[in-house]
Specification:
7 strands
């Protein structure tokens, strides 16, 4: 099996911090994502994920902690999630962690309603357990509420 290296990109004013660790299964996008060329930012990440799913960790934690992302970024993030859902090992678990500023929503249920559209990208995979963990945060990023949803 081909060994893949971790991938890490420092954040900029327009691109998120990207920290994907093959050894721990922690895949983290954080910050702002409004790149002028989303393909340049996310294509290497998607290629990395395509390699990762061939030999994933027992538990993969995809952490989406973006304070803001544009439409182009959401398309690439959806491609990444769809690829992660292609893990073919029934002993593997994928958790998708989504962080929202609680002030932007009336309740955690409103957040769940909003991510239902996000779940449309999930492939039907009868061998992979998938869970969403939703976190309501304050302006400083402190978690005030959390909820879990299994698909």
């Amino acid at each position: 099996m081909k060994k893949i290296n971790n991938i890490f990109f420092e954040p900029t004013d327009k691109t998120p911090s990207i920290d994907f660790n093959q050894l721990t299964g922690d895949l983290i996008l954080s910050g702002r994502s409004i790149p002028e060329n989303a393909a340049k930012t996310y294509e290497p990440v998607l290629i990395w994920v395509q390699d990762y799913i061939k030999n994933p960790c027992a538990i993969t934690n995809f952490r989406l902690n973006l304070e803001y992302f544009n439409t182009a970024s959401s398309i690439w993030i959806s491609k990444i999630v769809k690829t992660l859902c292609g893990i073919k090992n029934q002993e593997r678990i994928l958790f998708i962690h989504i962080y929202f500023n609680i002030e932007d929503f009336n309740s955690i249920d409103d957040v769940k309603d909003d991510i239902i559209q996000f779940t449309n990208v999930l492939i039907s995979n009868e061998t992979l357990s998938i869970g969403y963990k939703i976190y309501g945060t304050d302006d400083d990023g402190k978690i005030l509420k959390e909820s879990m949803l299994f698909i």
